[in-house]
Amino acid sequence: MKIDIGKLMKVLLILTILLGLFAPIAFAAEVQTSGIPVEISLGGSPPEEEEDYEIVLKADNSDYPMPEGSVDGVFTMNMSGENSGELPGIKFFSIGIYTYTIYQKAGTNELATYDNTVYNLVIYVTNSEAEEGLETTILLYKTGDNDKFDEVAFYNEYEETVIIEDEDPPLGPKDPEIIEDEEVPLGPGKLPKTGEISSGVFLLIGAIVTGTGLLLKKKKD
């Protein structure tokens, strides 16, 4: 069987051109996941000034695809106060199973109990059955729990702030009360006055003289 070399070269050329056109399309297949909703709720007595909370998305393998802005397989998102947000989606270029963890980094408020729940994120990337390209299946569950969740939720509880008012300072010791001693009489009753003392003495002397005279008179008789 004789082969026409010219026609064969034309066929090979056409095939090469077609492969060159379709090859970029095959290698350019990619898929991006939807974002993961995140909600933070507060209980107790939250502070008047809203606290910032840091949500962390970490790849179990640093080679796994990550959202833009990630560093060494770690993406962080800050949220203020009681709020809701969304972790950005991730682009994938090849089939596989990719695993991540999502958690809240504990804050510094001593009156707060921060939710330490850890979520496991599993993303299956497979060939699309309906059309050419890739598709993803996302599973989100808590560590130690098989229930599937549609969002990440953290609940932070705050103790009530107790303000202790300063009491009035105690008064210093009072100055001792000085009690002046009253004049106390030397004996019972009132002391006789000066005039009374003189009259009594003269009466006593007179009585003695009279008595002595009578006694002498009796002796003479």
What is shown here, in short?
By secondary structure, the chain is α+β, with helices and mostly antiparallel strands. The protein has helices at residues 5-27, 194-220; strands at 31-32, 36-44, 52-59, 74-80, 83-87, 91-92, 96-105, 112-113, 118-127, 134-142, 152-158.
What topology emerges from the helices and strands here?
Layout: H1 5-27, E1 31-32, E2 36-44, E3 52-59, E4 74-80, E5 83-87, E6 91-92, E7 96-105, E8 112-113, E9 118-127, E10 134-142, E11 152-158, H2 194-220
Parallel strand pairs: 2-11
Antiparallel strand pairs: 1-6, 2-5, 3-4, 3-7, 7-9, 8-11, 9-10
Q: Would you identify the CATH architecture of the domain at 28-158?
A: Sandwich
How much of the sequence lies in strands comes to 25-35%
Strand order of the largest sheet: 4-3-7-9-10
What is the chain-wise order of helices and strands? HEEEEEEEEEEEH
Shape: rod-shaped
Radius of gyration: 56 Å
Helix/strand/pairing category: alpha+beta
Helix content: 10-25%
Uncertain segments: 19-27
CATH class of the domain at 28-158: Mainly Beta
CATH topology of the domain at 28-158: Immunoglobulin-like
